[in-house]
Prior knowledge:
Blueprint: E1 2-4, H1 5-9, H2 18-27, E2 31-38, E3 52-62, E4 70-75, E5 82-86, E6 105-110, E7 114-116, E8 125-127, E9 131-133, E10 136-138, E11 140-142, H3 145-148, H4 170-173, E12 176-182, H5 193-204, E13 219-221, E14 227-230, E15 238-245, H6 254-262, H7 270-282, E16 287-290, E17 298-303, E18 309-311, E19 317-319, E20 325-329, E21 332-336, E22 340-341, E23 353-360, H8 363-372, H9 378-383, H10 391-407, E24 410-413, E25 416-418, E26 426-430, H11 432-438, H12 445-452, E27 458-462, E28 465-470, H13 480-491, H14 512-526, E29 530-531, E30 537-538, H15 540-546, E31 569-570, H16 575-586, E32 592-599, E33 614-621, H17 639-652, E34 659-663, E35 670-680, E36 695-702, H18 704-710, E37 717-723, H19 724-730, E38 745-754, H20 759-770, E39 774-783, E40 792-801, H21 810-827, E41 831-832
Parallel strand pairs: 13-24, 14-17, 29-32
Antiparallel strand pairs: 1-12, 2-12, 3-4, 3-6, 4-5, 6-11, 7-8, 9-10, 15-23, 15-24, 15-25, 16-23, 17-20, 18-19, 20-21, 21-22, 26-28, 27-28, 30-31, 32-33, 33-37, 34-35, 35-36, 36-37, 38-40, 38-41, 39-40
Amino acid sequence: MRVPLSWLKAFVDIDVPVEELAHRLTMAGLEVEGIEYLGLPGGELPWDKDKVLVCNILDVRQHPNADKLVLADVDYGAGQPHTVVTGAPNLQPYKDKGPVGHPLKSVFAKEGAELYDGHAEGKVKVKLKGRPVRGVMSDAMLCSEKELGISDEHEGILFLPEDAPTGAPLADYLGDVVIEIAITPNYARALSILGVAREVAALLGKQVHIPELSAPATGPSIEGRFRVTVEAPTLCPRFTATLIEGIEIKPSPYWMQRRLMLAGMRPISNVVDVTNYLMLEIGQPSHSFDADTIAEQHLIVRPARESERLTTLDGKERTLTPERLLVADPTGPLSIAGVMGGETSEVTASTTRVLLEAASWEPATIRKTARAYALPSEASRRFERGVDWELPVLLQQRATALLQQTAGGTIAQGMIDIYPQPWQQITLDLTPAEVRRIVGIDLSAAEIAALLAPLGFGCAVEADVVRVTVPSSRQDVTILADLCEEVARMYGYDRIPGTLLSDALPKQQNNVSFELEQKARDTMVGCGLDEAMTYSMTSMPSVAAVSPADADPALHMRVSNPNTPDREYMRRSLLPVFLEAVAGNLREQERVLQFEIGRVYLRQEGQVLPAEPRYLAIAMAGPRTPLSWHQRDAGAIDFFDVKGAVETLVERLHIGDQVEFAPLDGDPRLQPGRAAVLRRRAAPRGKAPAEPGAVLGVLGELHPDVRERLGIETRRVAVAELDLEQLIALSAPAKYRPISRYPATIQDLAMVVETATPADAVAQAIRKYAGNTLESLVLFDVYQGPQVGEGKQSLAYRLTFRAQDRTLGDADLAKIRQKIIRGLEHDVKATIRA
């Protein structure tokens, strides 16, 4: 929230430097994110007190040599008027009519003043230099808001109020400091100048004084002319309305526009500006209706009816549901309560009668409505955090006075005030023992009362108890812990002593599952992959882009209050959102190697909550190695690269003897012939083939259709998705054996097998019959061609043998080799090549 210091000083006397004030607010929980100096030293464009002054325009004449320029005689306090050449269009109505006749105040800049260029894009600083303009010397200027850095408005010069002191430095008149405060949800009470003033007054030991603002009500009574019916009193605990007639819609006065702009709001018109101004000032949002558009002069607060429609002030038609609260008339909706008004009752340039509504709303209803329609507003921001139920009356008093002051008109006597559920005051008994238990400081009951009273709490000390009465402005305080927090803030967080645990620390226990997850993460990084983190929520179009068959809402867990339609369902697979990120990266760079470890959410039969196993996703695309002068053609990443990463993970988790790869067909995500499944190896049953075990993941190259739907132009994208939860469950501690002191013997073995026979089956057969002297096994050659026959392939393996207790002799190796050959002939129908 932006808090102009000049506005804050209207509510509380501040006698400390702004930097110290910012520090005190931050230490009290209101974090000051920045301090902006406007026109003052320390800001981007300080106004020179000798060169940028308030002036009075005395006369405006046509430039003798230019139709679009005028000459303005201005008094800036120097004794003699100074002539300025300007093309400001808002001075044209005054030209050649003689002396202006009334104070016409503006900003005069002398030669040498530093300003912003009013015609340049953005903020470009220039130093004013004198030069002839069409034969007339111009060594000064009248300034626009953009040239002064006030706003982006540069079409005309800035007109100041008539009471602006001629000759005064503009820095003294308009210079200001804006404090930027980060308002967290628990500090909703500070979402106004009054709210911040209460905090400042408590911190500085001052009193809050609300500037008096009221006007007599001289019009006919509102009673009998307007009616209000509240059909949902639990959702609308208070509703007030006042009437002002005979108004004129026009721009609000400059002082009000200035404060709104400093606070970050754009001025619109006097009626709208008054409601925005008071929302920022006292924290109570309100809404103005064109009274002539309200049917039967009757407002009704009610839930929406099914499929009712309302076009809101942003021009969009909204379909309403019974969960939404409306302000309506007998013909239909007028506004979405606490969020946004409708076009049919909008105040326009022709409006002459305004019915002003100020109400209190149930916070959860406003929060859900604002999010459902993606309509966050300054009003809903306050209502959804809770607004003081006593503020509507104060707002009506101040608003009617400001409306009459800025728009004219007559205030109707009386005010409609529907208050079916008045604020129930809360009283809490706080003891020094409770403060000591929660905060850790020793204070007497009198000292506790002295800390709480400046914040507006009623405090009565009775023996060793402080009876605290909570004001309506502090709806966030409901329990003793809330009061203890206020005591700690006012005492000073920096003064609270640090303490250590008075008990022994519990014994350290290893979290094996977490450690193995970290090992998987480290393994992927070691393989050259970067970790990605994507959203846990997705949408059906995102799922359909990767796997159309899976894009069934019935299979997914739906979030009841999603932030956006793109994040509506909990993911069942990492790949849809993960591959969207990969596709985006591939549009910016040619080589991507990424992985993600995250949870997926799978429906469980008969269970409300889903299962949440951890999955691992991998994506690799682009050149196999980065571009280099000594390796111009490194080849493209393919299936075997991602398989190598998965094999490395399997090895590091020590589960190589428990899993196996098998060809995979029929997965629409992956290209046929370039896909595999990782599954658990089943234990053999006698001599019968082992049954396939549980699927642990899939890997392969993305199907071209998937790449097209994702917008990926790279020809090959190798991906994998593994059930990390199951892989971790299989993991066992590493088994070590002594390093043999005897030499190794290397032999090559080549054989011919059916093309359909997996190389993994051959390797398993070799390990099965080689025994424990086989130290390593490497496939180094694969051949298919006429020399081995159609439907056949030649596989060549390098075998390394080493014994722990002796050097293996030729007889030993020959025996082992024959055993391997017989096993291969039996298990995989291999023919050994000479």
